[in-house]
Amino acid sequence: MKTYCLELSGPYACFTRPEMKVERVSYDVMTPSAARACFEAILWKPAIRWHVRKIEVLNPIRWINLRRNEVASVVSTRNVETAMKSGKGNLGLYIEEDRQQRAGLFLRDVAYRVHADLEFLAERDPQANAAKYHEMFERRAGKGQCVNQPYLGCREFAAAFRLVAKPDDEAAPIDETRELGFMLHDLDFSRPADPQPRFFRARLENGAVAIPFWDSEEVQG
Question: For residue 98, how many other CB atoms are within 10 A of its CB?
Fold first, then answer.
C-alpha cells in the first residue's frame, strides 16, 4: 500500500450525525467515510480500496446555522421501472408541491489534510500491478481531475482539492486537543441489502484525528 495526502477545503461542510433524525447537525470534524468518498471521487476501480489513516484540521472549527429548502420525497422506484418498460412516464418532482424547510448546524470555512492508503487487490485485476493505479491517481489528482466533484458531506458543499506531495513541508494543523465522542467510521457493506454503520471513539489530538483500522477493536458496529 502507498499513502497519499489530499488537502480539501470549502466554505461549508456538513458531516451529518445519524442520531439527528430531523434537522441536519454536523460532526465537529470530517468523518472517515466522507474522506474516503473524496479519494474515490478522483479514482475508484474495483481493484483498489482506500483506507483513511489520519485527518488533520487546518482551520479553526467554526459553525453556522442555515435554513434550507429541500424536497420532501424521492422519485418512486416503481414509477422508474414502469417508465423503463413503457418508454415513457412522468418522473418529475414538483418543488412547489413538495417543498420543506429544514434547519441545519453546519461547519464553515473548513480545510483538512487527509492521509489515506491505496490498497491494490491483485485478485480483481491479475493483469495489472499496484504501480498502474498509483500512476493513475497521481496523474488525475495532480491535474485536478475527478470522476465527480468531491464534496464535504453534502453534495451541494463542493470541495476544492489539492494533492500534497510533501505533507511534512506543509503548515501544521490547528493547536487543539479534545474528545469528539463516537463518530461514524464507515458503513459495513458485507450485507449489501442492509449496510450497517460502524463507529469509533474519535479524539482530536494536536489538530489531528487518527483513524483506527476497520477490523480493530476500537471500531464497533
Answer: 12
Give residue for cell 494536536.
206
153: left (phi over 0), alpha (psi -120 to 50) or beta: left
Task: State the residue for C-alpha cell 487543539.
Answer: 176
Q: Which residues, 6+ apart, have CB-to-CB distance to 66 below 8 Å?
A: 12, 103, 104, 106
160 within 8 A of 8, measured Cβ to Cβ: yes
Query: How many other C-beta atoms lie within 10 A of the C-beta of residue 211?
Result: 26
Q: What is the largest CA-CA distance in the chain?
A: 60
Question: Domains of the chain by range and CATH?
Answer: 2-67+105-210 (3.30.70.2660)
pLDDT tens sequence across 107-142: 999 999 999 999 999 999 999 999 999 999 999 999
pTM given for the model: 0.87
d(CA 204, CA 23): 25
Q: Is 125 in contact with 133 (CB distance < 8 Å)?
A: no
CA distance 219 to 162: 29
Contacts of 102 (CB under 8 A, 6+ apart): 22, 23, 24, 67, 68, 70
Q: What value, to the nearest 5°, has the Cα angle with vertex 203 and ends 8 and 35?
A: 25
